[in-house]
Write a structure and sequence with these properties.
Length: 348
Amino acid sequence: MEVTRGGFVESFHRGSLAIVDAGGALHTALGDIERPVFPRSAVKVMQALPLVASGAAARLGLTDAELAIACASHNGEPAHAATAAGMLAKAGLDATALECGGHWPMWDVAGRALAATGAQPGALHNNCSGKHAGFACLGCLMATAEGRDARAFLAGYVRPDHPLMREVTAALQAATGCNLAQAPVGTDGCAIPTFAIPLRQLAHGFARIATGSGLSPAHAAAAARLRRAVAAAPFMVAGTGRFDTRVMEALGERLFCKVGAEGVYGAALPELGLGVALKMDDGNNARAAEVVMAAVAAALLPRAAPLQPAQATLLAELAAPTLRNWNGTEVGGLRGAEALRQALTVAA
């Protein structure tokens, strides 16, 4: 990925890209796609599979918005916090059940509004609160099945050896085909384990999310349900001004995409049966990973069906954003490097 100024390439953001079909065949590869990377929040849809497959989501009557926020890295806007709280209430819980920790809303407008009230941020404002609310809902079903008190069962659910986290980890392993028992493991920002997975296997996981192929029947149905929910409520996945929300508002079920952290992105393209995973080596999201993801979507989606004019315009703008100075004067831009442009031309 290149940053230009005055017609000159000022900076490079180097990375790797894997596009894989549901059978595991490699469609496109750039860079080192076998090096394990921590996908972090990019795999939340895979971690949410047990919530739906177990029957917990149906039993609690979780809505599209609630299932979407279970897959989210949200802004912490009032609607996000309220939706996560609503999920917990359906399970007879409140925010004290969450073990993700609290932080100020990611969207500065929401953060300033919260600060103006004199309140402090809590777990519901954490960008992962929806994922953790989904964990709590699943945990309540598991506790009931064992005849245990839900709050007692949920204590310490972020630990790798907790029955709830083992269920979540098993779903991630089944989707990606990566032996997580042998994978490097760290701790994510929201306290749960995060496993390093090669980009090729990560992309394969997203191809399975796109198609259901290679998943158990219950997980395949869960993947389809989660994709529909996100398409119906894309605001919940990110929020005001965010890439994932803007793209999925425009494209609906044609594309599921999810930012991770440190320059990781994943996407499912159901019409094409493809999964995408990318990693920028310098960890840059907004100035690098998002540009590459937009370029991939703009190149590949028309193979299945033409983009509507507004969709094509949005992806073109996101794939080649203009850079302006403080006077509003255009001074440069961002764009995919020649190697990326050539690979996507061949792929398309």
